[in-house]
Amino acid sequence: MLKVVASLLLASLSSVVLAKDAVELLQFENFGYSGGYSPVVALNDIYSDDCSCQLASQRTTFSGANTPLNEEVSVHFRGPLVLNKFASYVSSGYVYGDDNSGNWTRLSYYDADSGASENVTFLTRAGRNSSCLGLGLTFADEDGVSQADSSTVLAKDTLINSNQEYVIFTNISCGSSSTTGDCGVYRPDIPAYHGFYGTEKMFLFEFQMPNETHSPWDVANYNMPAIWLLNAQIPRTAQYSNNVNCSCWRSGCGEFDIFEIMNQTEYTHLYSTIHDYQGTGEIESGLAISSYIERDLTGTMVGGVSFDSNGDATVWVSNSTSFDEQVAAKDVNSWAKGVKEAATTTLASASLASSTASSKSSPKKGDGYAYTPSFLVNMIAAVLTIWVI
Ligand SMILES: *[C@@H]1O[C@H](CO)[C@@H](O)[C@H](O)[C@H]1NC(C)=O
Ligand SMILES: *[C@@H]1O[C@H](CO)[C@@H](O)[C@H](O)[C@H]1NC(C)=O
Ligand SMILES: *[C@@H]1O[C@H](CO)[C@@H](O)[C@H](O)[C@H]1NC(C)=O
Ligand SMILES: *[C@@H]1O[C@H](CO)[C@@H](O)[C@H](O)[C@H]1NC(C)=O
Ligand SMILES: *[C@@H]1O[C@H](CO)[C@@H](O)[C@H](O)[C@H]1NC(C)=O
Ligand SMILES: *[C@@H]1O[C@H](CO)[C@@H](O)[C@H](O)[C@H]1NC(C)=O
Ligand SMILES: *[C@@H]1O[C@H](CO)[C@@H](O)[C@H](O)[C@H]1NC(C)=O
Ligand SMILES: *[C@@H]1O[C@H](CO)[C@@H](O)[C@H](O)[C@H]1NC(C)=O
């Protein structure tokens, strides 16, 4: 194994050309920092034109591995995409690369072929529109995007198109909406469910991201499929809000993009990005790894993301990935070891919390993110390590 380490220093950064390569594994080391965010504490008059929201005056603070995504997360999907399998796991003590550390236990499972659907709830934004919160979540019907009256399993081979989305939560209902409740404050007219807990958590996916077959029409995110995690509080208040005070996203409660097409120019490159204030003040662009995983336009992709007890967040694709009820640490390590190429970025521990708040709060909104020149500026705060195997 040839290890190429590029430690980027402030002064030399602008002259360094970052390697951009296709790999099968993307890893952030040292994910998690000492920081905080502002949860939503009130949603007022949500169907009036005077709709408004309020963030807590006191920030929720956090520190340690994988923060703030050690909190409960929801799992989001954008088309063109077909989901064949999904599984969520927790572990106690898994350390990336250590075969003797914690094994993984499956807590949720969806398998389109067998029809299995355990501990998952599919929601989609087919509800009522609010001028400050946007469209409300509802149960998704079996097509993933229409409204259903109750929790419904996604039909086999369901293709969602460009810019269509659904989200998976657990099947555990939230208690009452309240600042001290188990899910915090949430939009009153949605089916509210818990997300996936755990500092050490893992999600596995078998999916297709087929090429968009229709010519471009008036749609955002044309041919830009993605799978990503949000702090579960975000979609329960407002994922695409028109008001910065209606979501904790802007203040840094966390988003982790696992497999994401960033723009139509690079429509076969799946990037991973963290959106919080670890090592960056630019939450819109976040911190991405400059290498990418190739999108298979015609085949099926299998892979996942694991978060270990040291703050290693690892994204991979490998056809060795299995969705068993129990997965040994050594198996997850062997999937990672089996890849041909990998890229690792070590995050700085520093928090660069935002000073400015714009009027919009838009996790994964609109036209993708602009990466230059702010991408390079962001990288100044990070020490970048590139591994070439
Ligand atoms: C469902 O998932 C949640 C969160 O991962 C977990 O707390 C719960 O125990 C799971 N339920 C079952 C029946 O496994
Ligand atoms: C949640 O999922 C688990 C596992 O499939 C199941 O045993 C349980 O009955 C479900 N609970 C609800 C409320 O649907
Ligand atoms: C929802 O309302 C907002 C603001 O009033 C508006 O900009 C948006 O187009 C509406 N969305 C839909 C799908 O009607
Ligand atoms: C994929 O779809 C895009 C948009 O329709 C098109 O421009 C491109 O040529 C297609 N690529 C392949 C390999 O078919
Ligand atoms: C958000 O809340 C702050 C503090 O209460 C307030 O000053 C600001 O005007 C609010 N922003 C919007 C868009 O409502
Ligand atoms: C597309 O996204 C990649 C990755 O973020 C970026 O490097 C590239 O500059 C973007 N291209 C365009 C045309 O925006
Ligand atoms: C993985 O297996 C699927 C079929 O399950 C296939 O479509 C795909 O091409 C395979 N990927 C690789 C990299 O071998
Ligand atoms: C993990 O699983 C392996 C294989 O099933 C087993 O041998 C090992 O004892 C387990 N380790 C722990 C810490 O439970």
Automatic annotation (TrEMBL):
Keywords for the protein's UniProt record, in alphabetical order: Cell wall biogenesis/degradation, Glycosidase, Hydrolase, Signal
Residues annotated as domain Cell wall protein YJL171C/Tos1 C-terminal: 102-335
Enzyme class: hydrolase
Organism classification: Eukaryota, Fungi, Dikarya, Ascomycota, Saccharomycotina
Reactions that this protein is recorded to catalyse: Hydrolysis of (1->3)-beta-D-glucosidic linkages in (1->3)-beta-D-glucans
Protein name, as recorded: glucan endo-1,3-beta-D-glucosidase
Signal peptide: 1-19
Pfam families on file: YJL171C_Tos1_C, YJL171C_Tos1_N
Residue ranges constituting the Cell wall protein YJL171C/Tos1 N-terminal domain according to the UniProt record: 26-90
Family under the similarity heading: Belongs to the PGA52 family.
Alphabetized InterPro entries for the sequence: YJL171C/Tos1_C, YJL171C/Tos1_N
EC number: 3.2.1.39
